[in-house]
Design goal:
The chain is α+β, with helices and mostly antiparallel strands. The protein folds into two domains: 72 residues; 117 residues, Sandwich (Immunoglobulin-like), CATH 2.60.40.4070. Helix content is 38%, strand content 34%. It is built from four helices and eleven strands. Strands 1, 3, 6, 8, 9, 10 and 11 form a seven-stranded antiparallel beta sheet that branches. α2 runs antiparallel to α3. The relative contact order is 0.15.
């Protein structure tokens, strides 16, 4: 009798331990649904009418559909994990740019008295090329760059030499051939912060820009035209 009681207590202890292990395992909704489906399927098989048994093919089809649902959920979780990993890698890459020179495609510039370098790319030859700067009051200042052949055109803006006050200006390139090339400004990354939309970099002379707007990394040489 003591042996039987001891065996029963041991079985109860094992069952309790098994329940604790199951509770500690994070079972997904799809996996739990699959387990419930199997339990229901087994109960249906046990309690079916012996004179009218259910076609086994139907059980296989249902189980196959449930397995597909579980596979889709696993693929979704894997995709989410990959997105998180890519976001972390992007943040690390952005943090490594602090103190380095980058180029950013932008339509605004923040002047604080220091010279700012940049470039544009001409698809066609232009007899006249200029930069148009517009301050917050709508006052426009045009800086002539002269005529240039197709290709990269580098420039350097010196606010003190041009008599431009510190502040934020809109900036655009204008040519006499009707082309409006995008302006890329060069500056040093001073700070990186993380936002819901990804890393945001503070670039000297440009301001806060998203990581994806960078067009070039590293320290490059730019000519001084102004």
């Amino acid at each position: 009798m003591a042996l039987v009681n001891g065996t029963q207590q041991g079985n109860l202890a094992l069952a309790d331990s098994d329940e604790k292990v199951r509770a500690g395992v994070n079972i997904s909704d799809a996996a739990q649904m699959e387990n419930n489906f199997i339990d229901l399927m087994v109960a249906q098989i046990r309690n079916q009418d012996p004179t009218k048994p259910v076609d086994s093919t139907e059980f296989l089809n249902q189980f196959s559909a449930m397995s597909q649902v579980k596979s889709l959920e696993n693929m979704t979780r894997l995709s989410q994990s990959n997105l998180v990993l890519l976001d972390n890698l992007q943040t690390l890459a952005a943090a490594g740019l602090v103190g380095q020179q980058v180029k950013v495609g932008t339509d605004s510039i923040s002047l604080d008295g220091r010279a700012v370098s940049g470039q544009m790319t001409l698809q066609h030859a232009a007899g006249s090329t200029l930069l148009r700067l517009t301050d917050t009051n709508g006052v426009t200042r045009e800086v002539e760059l002269g005529g240039h052949a197709p290709g990269s055109l580098s420039f350097n803006l010196d606010p003190q030499a041009l008599g431009l006050r510190p502040g934020t200006y809109g900036i655009e390139a204008v040519t006499d051939n009707g082309e409006s090339p995008s302006v890329e400004l060069q500056g040093e990354v001073t700070h990186v912060r993380v936002s819901d939309e990804g890393p945001v970099l503070d670039v000297a002379g440009i301001g806060s820009v998203p990581f994806y707007s960078l067009t070039e990394f590293g320290r490059g040489a730019t000519g001084s035209l102004l």
